[in-house]
TrEMBL record:
Entry EC no(s): 2.1.1.182
Oxidoreductase recorded as keyword: no
Ranges of residues in domain Ribosomal RNA adenine methylase transferase N-terminal: 19-192
Keywords of the record: Cytoplasm, Methyltransferase, RNA-binding, rRNA processing, S-adenosyl-L-methionine, Transferase
Residues that, per the record, bind S-adenosyl-L-methionine: 12, 14, 41, 63, 87, 107
Protein's name according to its UniProt entry: Ribosomal RNA small subunit methyltransferase A
Length: 258
């Protein structure tokens, strides 16, 4: 029995054992911060095989594809009771883990990868570590720092709460079917910031508005928010890719105080 990759689910099955081992090894579980790992979209269990070899956590899997669920139940008896059928984006983690912390791993479907990341940020206090494969462009965007072309909205939102490292690039030919783009693996570790020192909804609005017109200086891109505010400071002469997370927090507070 095999599982046919389904285009509408964005499935590209990884078939390189050495890369699966590398991904599993990137989960460091420093300080034994968690005892459970949730793999998203395991397909036929290529990565699952190597996660199960780890003895410092228990592996759980979730997949929306019923064919994959049937395959895993037939071929991975060690996962009995830890195979969940459902849409990760719609699931309530309390259903599976209560208030326990857990890590997330996976070769994520590229068509919903950004949504997966936003879901993780929403549940950041329960997810201390993430190791995952994305389209290379998305992986670079998530991990890139200020001053670089790839740095953008996703970078700021995620780096506000996670320290992120780009691990390695994966070529197209190790997947079935091969995607049309290269892939990249990143590791995200929860940082010490418990909350933003500003209005979080306003922060999101400021970041989105700034990067939606990223070629303009902040003085121009944020003009609707800056009425009545002294914009003579140097920060307003900058474009958004020059600002760190802390800079955006400071900018949000300036807007909020006007």
């Amino acid at each position: 029995m095999t599982v046919k990759a389904k285009k509408h689910l964005g499935q590209h099955f990884l078939n390189a054992p050495e890369i699966c081992q590398q991904i599993a090894d990137e989960l460091k579980n420093e300080g034994e911060a968690y005892k459970k790992v949730l793999e998203i979209g395991p397909g036929m269990g290529a990565l699952t095989t190597y996660l199960l070899k780890r003895n410092d956590f228990d592996t759980y899997v979730i997949d929306i594809d019923t064919e994959s669920i049937d395959y895993l139940k037939s071929n991975f008896p060690d996962l009995k009771g830890r195979i969940f059928e459902g849409d990760f984006l719609k699931e309530d983690f309390d259903r599976y883990f209560g208030a326990e912390p857990f890590a997330i791993a996976g070769n994520f479907p590229y068509n919903i990868s950004s949504q997966i990341l936003f879901k993780i940020v929403e549940n950041r206090d329960q997810v201390p570590e993430v190791v995952g494969m994305f389209q290379k462009e998305v992986a670079e965007r998530v991990a890139e720092g200020p001053g670089k072309k790839a740095y953008g909205i996703l970078s700021v939102f995620l780096q506000a709460f996670y320290d992120i490292r780009y691990c390695f690039t994966v070529d197209e030919h190790v997947f079935t079917p091969p995607p049309k783009v290269k892939s990249g693996v990143i590791r995200m570790v929860r940082n010490q910031r418990e909350r933003l020192d500003c209005d979080e909804e306003l922060f999101k609005r400021v970041v989105k508005m700034a990067f939606n017109q990223r070629r303009k200086t902040l003085r121009n891109s944020l003009k609707p928010l800056l009425a009545g505010l002294d914009t003579s400071q140097e920060i307003f002469n900058l474009r958004p890719e020059r600002l760190s997370v802390d800079d955006f927090i400071e900018l949000t507070n300036r807007v909020d105080r006007k």
